[in-house]
Amino acid sequence: MSLALYRKYRPATFGELKGQEHVAEPLQQALRNGRVNHAYLFSGPRGCGKTSSARILARSLNCEQGPTPDPCGICESCVALGPGGTGHLDVIEIDAASHGGVDDARDLRERAFFAPVSSRFKVYIIDEAHMVTREGFNALLKLVEEPPPHLKFVFATTEPEKVIGTIRSRTHHYPFRLIPPKTLQELLEEILQSEKVPYETAALPLVVRAGAGSARDSLSILDQLLAGSDEAGITYTRAVSLLGYTDAALLDEVVDAFGARDGAAVFAAIDRVIESGQDPRRFTADLLGRFRDLVIMANVPEATRTGLIDGPADELERMTAQAAAMGPADLARAADLLHTGLTEMRGATSPRLLLELICARILLPGAYTDETSLLARIDRLERSGPPMAAAAPRVEAPPAAFQPVSREAEPRPPAPEPAPRAPQRAAEPAPRPPVEPAPEPAQARPAPRQESRPAPSRPAADDGWGAPVAQAPSAPAPAPAAAASSGAIDVSVVRQRWPQILEAVQRRSRVAWMTIMEGVAPASVDGNLLTIAFENDGKRKNFTMGRREGVLAEVLREQLGVDWRIDAVLGSALPAPSARPAAPPPPTWDQPRQSPQRPAPAGPPAPQAVPQAAPPVPQPSEPLPPPPEAPMGGDDDDVDVEGDTLAANEAVSGLALLQRELGGRVIREIDNS
Description:
43% of the residues lie in helices and 7% in strands. It is of the alpha/beta class. The chain has five domains: 5-175, 3-Layer(aba) Sandwich (Rossmann fold), CATH 3.40.50.300; 181-243, CATH 1.10.8.60; 248-383, Zinc Finger, Delta Prime, domain 3 (Up-down Bundle); 480-577, DnaA, N-terminal domain (GMP Synthetase, Chain A, domain 3, 2-Layer Sandwich), CATH 3.30.300; 582-599 and 633-673, no CATH class. The chain has a five-stranded parallel sheet, covered by helices on one side.
């Protein structure tokens, strides 16, 4: 009769102890130093090597060449305490589950004072020590505290918190851990090679998963598979059917159906799971494990190369395609729903119904308004390709504190006609005295908001008396493309091109565009570092933690031909108050009204014209000029909207508005009261 694998391949030395190096090395060093304690407490999950380590310690203490960290394996004590040995009289193993009473403790106390028969030490190994009653521990307390020189205690337990504190304080505590899956799989491969049994590599992960980190449980399952194997050895199909796990092909089919949003294929696969007699809870747990691997692969592309995800090459290739088909947000939402549903299945009367409801929730993220469902929908839109240009949402202008330079304000070359067209606000009427008007400075005021429709054409402006107004053409500034080609790209160029940059970001990633579409503006350019300012700290954190700066850097490389790093800060993007040019003086009676010009964020202030001497103020007896009439064909709606916007933005009084907008002067104030 063959010996069980967990007994046949039980470790005989500390060097053979797998996955417990944090315990084996300190014990070996204590044996070398001759500082072995009189009592030890070994705790940890079942099957991780607690009792085997206690036997190895007794073997090392009683070896003829010891105490030594490496027993010889040939002396009487080493052979008797080896994996196939019959045990030794001086090493007593007690099962506390059946011998944990006070009477058993008293009997142990009476026999402990006798000297060992043939060994150096008498060692008591008390397994399942947490089953000893409080009275039994109290009966052993004095013996454990002050034992005779030849006596050693080793307590092994899976629940160290149930061992009373007075016993724990008199022991050296060594916590054991579960064996890592990779280490456990290597152990199984070594045993199968020693047994000369053929096996399929895909079957071993199932054994490791069923063993759950316990060496004894894994070897018991492997022994069961060996007992039922034929000439082909251990196969994946037989391991799946015996252990009750879901076939990888069925998992692939369900995940592919989720990626294609094919509800019919999903529910057909669930029906095959139920018809084949599989447990819906086990299928849900296996599907959750698959989505866990896909979430990691979607967030860590090199997970398969670094060993974070292990498996056959063909299966890893299929999982890579599945992760790309669903996306990180969709995968995380599906895993969350499966985890919640698996918890709800405990004690449920119809687990199949719950499984089908879980799959329906995964297929319909649009039916929910929570954050994860919204992210899943955005993820699907991004993966479906760029939207149509007509369906693209209109880009709203940022707030006033972060107002970029509008495209309407970009310098344009002069028109070919002899008299260049004046800026839009030059067409508004203004009261003019019957004197020769001075030419208006060539400055254009940026529009307060961007308009998608083209500006209507207007007739040439007059002075209110039928004579045309002479207007000077504005000098064109160098285009941003010229600055980009020369390499001297500053923050003003980025601000002028910011609307085009936002549109390009929207075409690449809608999530990144939603983060910077509003309340964000370029702040400064320092070498190859572009600093953008956020007025909302939440958007800034979302931009930096979501790795959206890569999308913006690619767009800048495409639009401006630069390779910049992006730095997101919290604050305003306007220049300092000291860098802003002074406001133009109010117009006098004989000067033409000038539109207020906001300076460019990074350019130097424009030189201001020297104001002419004001004419003498007319006497009250002199007739005032008649009020001007609105020019025919003008756009009254635009004038009203622009005036209202100016009054709201600049917050000026009525008197200042008359002086600046209509060119009037206060002659006399009359008190009607």
